[in-house]
Amino acid sequence: MLKVKVSETKDYFKTGNKNFFYFADTVWSAFSNISIDEWEKYLTIRKKQGFNVFQANILTQWDAGKPDMNIYPFKVDKNGKFDFYSINEEYFKRAREMLSIANKIGLIPALVVLWGNYVKDTWMLKYNPINVMPFDIVKTYCVYVVKMFSEFNPIFIISGDTNFESEETIKYYITALETIKSLSPESLTTMHLAPCVELPEIFINSKHLDFYMYQSEHNIEFQDNIYKNAQNYYNKPVKRPIVNGEPCYEFHFFGGKYGRYNEFNVRKAFWQSVLSGAKAGFTYGAQGIWSWHREGKIFSNEPFGGKPLVWQKALNLKGANDISFAKQIYEKYNMFYIEPVDKILNKTNEICMSESKDGKQFFIYIPYNIDIDVSLNLSEYKITIINLATKKFFKPEIEIKKEFSRIKMHDFNNDVLIIGEKNK
What is the CATH number of the domain that holds 327? Predict the structure, then answer.
């Protein structure tokens, strides 16, 4: 079984002596909605696509519709209210079986311990207040989670889509974090936050938190959070690996207002995240996979995200292959050692640049056609442009000026990655 750890430099991951790029898929509803046969098919396809992690909610996902398996983590009454003092062991045994299959196929579980709807004073409670876990059961629940799952070397995502409106909320999560980490010290821990939520100082300063994870937003009007959040965590006083744990879902339809996100939006989220400081990993999501949507199934989140594809179709959306290619580029050029830099003279916010620590490589993401002026003498570099839509490589036209160099606008209407490698 693979075991993920933080690098000595505190900014990326390793498994054993090998560098490891956290490349996850979002499948929040796995334990309550997916049959064992479906699960094996899903994992096999994602493994072939290059994914090495899946993110799932340990408890029932509140906004994904009624669980198809009609199985719940706790005893439940006719109104859907959980008895948190009566654990349903069959649910957790089934989850263990699913983790065993995932380990054999080669995907690492990243498990959300307490999604926001189970915790006091979070934004979700005005929509779903029925199942707040009593605080006195939090530690007992976390002890049980570690007992059931630690042998599978999971990453524990302590919170899910949460905000921190009160000290009570913080108390829930700091208790969960400290309990999980004390019982499973080799399991990495992080916090999945609601968009635009700042992680409280108590977590930033905690020795129990291993890496930063942010959600960059599903609202198209705030897609600048992709790079802004990366920059925010990159500048934190406590250095940790940074992962964009929930960018826009492919095929997500925001309120019927803007159309649906496609593979371009996913590619842009990947490269803007990685080149702005979140180089440790990236999480993909498809509208239809995270909720495991079936034909004719009621989807409670439709007013926000639009009707999903059925899971079989969502599994084959183009964006998964596009970011799988992006991961291959990341690993081919050994981008574990890059840092954000500002060497673009005509920079706009959407254009992002990083450089290797030794200065021998640079990477620029451009979502549109434009000349790029950089404060480098590019006669010293081999320059390659990758058309990220077609996955083809080109050599650009370069102008060497007195004080800068210009990479001339590419002549195809797609987003690109520019790679500069210093001549030996």
Answer: 3.20.20.80
